[in-house]
Design brief:
The protein is of the alpha/beta class. Among the domains are: about 130 residues, Leucine Dehydrogenase, chain A, domain 1 (Rossmann fold), CATH 3.40.50; about 160 residues, 3-Layer(aba) Sandwich (Rossmann fold), CATH 3.40.50.720. It contains 17 helices and twelve strands. The strands form two sheets. It has a seven-stranded mixed beta sheet with strand order 9-8-7-6-10-11-12, with helices on both faces. Helix 9 links the parallel strand 6 and strand 7. Helix 8 crosses helix 9. The longest helix is centred in the C-terminal third of the chain and has 23 residues. It is globular and about 60 Å long. The structure holds NADPH dihydro-nicotinamide-adenine-dinucleotide phosphate and 2-oxoglutaric acid. It holds the Pfam family ELFV_dehydrog.
């Protein structure tokens, strides 16, 4: 419960954000959460009010949107819409992923870019925040069509990015295949072999462990949260949503640490395997999703003891830990109630903003350990930062070295959340901790750089 003065500040601020950014519900949601966390801190430190930091932080430095024409395999012209939201460059070049999914809007990219600014601030690496992508749907497209689309996308995007300007990476619908095509086209257009994308193939400058980093990092963060209660992942039952990059590698790390993953999902439904998804089963899922680009339902063809639940989410199963790793707002208040009633004690967001505000409030109310995405999934962008470092130095670190650095970064983010998120009753509000810590880093850089 906020004081009357703080609540008034939040309400006034949000009504202005909504007035200036109409019809952008995801962006409003992301800003509201941050403002609620930082408002008391800002009111105690009026320098941030004088410099209008929050007003500037919620206005993107630049938004570009553009046409992407390309020819499909039938020779027909297709037209998609492209975006890049360059939100904040006060602590480094813009940095953040590209999403290819038919559901994207400017609101989605603004929320993702805003989250990215604070997340990147938490990593302690010099990266500003951006996000972008297209309403292109890679599902059902041939490799050749994906390549032609990526080439057209980069033909416009290349004007706005660069290794000292803006360094995109992957997100939903964008993995190693797409980054390879985009890197190739950028090199061809500019005649420069530079680290303008991260998540590249290891043969041409990609960091070892970048594909694994978001999922592994989310599990390292979960482990840190459990450590505060003298607990661990070993022996725990874990429900995971999604079956893409983040979900696959979160599953891999949970298995390695002795936990039992019982669910994975995609946008069509979820699978439940009461015996647990072991390494061999996970390899089969990787083949289905990355090799055939198939559906998670195909898992039960190979493992008939498991069950498939079409059009449902996995949050009704009994578990100790939940890792939502698919997309925004996939876990609502009703799902949170189910998880709490079934004894779930820890939730860490592998995806960006997968839990609705109602769900987050319930987790806090019931003292469920809850990690927001900007802290828990920061391992991906942090390892992208490590890829940028390796590219600048023209060297390649071993997998072990990158993993050590990733672990340390996740531990440091956890400590920062504890520092700023400790409540009077001793519990840790990781949302508050992450938001205040990310805010301070970016805000102080903005003040130092003047009114820009
Ligand atoms: N990749 C990275 O390094 C990082 C990713 N993230 C976040 O993690 C999340 C997952 O990204 P990533 O694993 O890379 O993406 P992928 O494209 O590899 O996988 C996405 C997964 O989520 C499912 N999904 C997508 N949209 C929906 C939807 N509307 N409803 C239900 N399921 C959906 C997909 O199912 P289907 O196959 O049916 O589409 C797929 O299983 C995103 O929120 C992303 O922003 C955060 C930090 C870094
Ligand atoms: O690696 C990156 O630059 C971006 C990762 C990303 O998109 C995210 O953290 O949401």
């Amino acid at each position: 419960m906020q004081s009357e003065k703080v609540q008034k500040y939040i309400d006034n601020f949000m009504s202005e954000v909504i007035r200036k950014n109409p019809h952008e519900p995801e962006f409003h949601q992301a800003v509201q959460e941050v403002v609620e966390s930082v408002a008391p801190y800002i009111l105690e430190n009026p320098i941030y009010i004088k410099h209008k930091i929050l007003e500037r932080m919620t206005e993107p430095e630049r938004v570009v949107s553009f046409r992407i024409p390309w020819l499909d395999d039938q020779g027909e012209i297709q037209i998609n819409k492209g975006y890049r939201v360059q939100m904040n460059s006060s602590i480094g070049p813009y940095k953040g992923g590209l999403r290819f999914h038919p559901s994207v809007t400017q609101s989605v990219f603004k929320f993702l870019a805003f989250e990215q600014v604070l997340k990147n601030g938490l990593t302690s690496l010099p990266m500003g925040g951006a996000k972008g992508g297209s309403d292109f749907n890679p599902k059902g497209k041939t490799d050749f069509e994906v390549m032609k689309f990526c080439q057209s996308f980069v033909t416009e995007l290349q004007r706005h990015v660069g290794s000292f300007t803006d360094v995109p990476a992957g997100d939903i619908g964008v993995g190693g295949r797409e980054i390879g095509y985009m890197f190739g086209q950028y090199k061809r257009l500019t005649n420069r072999f530079v680290g303008v994308f991260t998540g590249k193939g290891a043969e041409f400058g990609g960091s070892l462990l970048r594909p694994e980093a978001t999922g592994y990092g989310a599990v390292y963060f979960t482990q840190e949260m459990l450590n505060t209660q003298d607990d661990s992942i070993k022996g725990k039952t874990v429900a995971i949503s999604g079956s893409g990059n983040v979900a696959q590698f979160a599953t891999e790390k949970v298995i390695e640490l002795g936990g039992k993953v019982v669910t994975l999902s995609d946008s069509s439904g979820y699978i439940y395997d009461s015996e647990g998804i072991d390494t061999a089963k996970l390899e089969h899922i990787k083949l289905i999703k990355n090799g055939y680009r198939g559906r998670i339902s195909q898992y039960v063809d190979e493992y008939p003891n498991a069950t498939y639940h079409p059009q449902e989410k996995p949050w009704g199963v009994k578990c100790d830990i939940a890792l939502p790793c698919a997309t925004q707002n996939e876990l609502n208040g009703d799902s949170a109630k189910l998880l709490i009633d079934n004894g779930c004690k820890c939730v860490a967001e592998g995806a960006n903003m997968p839990c609705t505000p109602e769900a987050v409030n319930l987790f806090h109310e019931h003292k469920v350990l809850f990690a927001p995405g900007k802290a828990a999934n920061a391992g991906g962008v942090a390892t992208s930062g490590l890829e940028m470092t390796q590219n600048s130095m023209r060297i390649s670190w071993t997998r072990e070295k990158v993993d050590d650095k990733l672990k340390t970064i996740m531990q440091n983010i956890h400590s920062s959340c504890v520092k700023h998120g400790r409540e009077p009753d001793g519990s840790i509000n990781y949302v508050k901790g992450a938001n205040i810590c990310g805010f301070i880093k970016v805000a102080n850089a903005m003040i130092t750089q003047g009114v820009v």
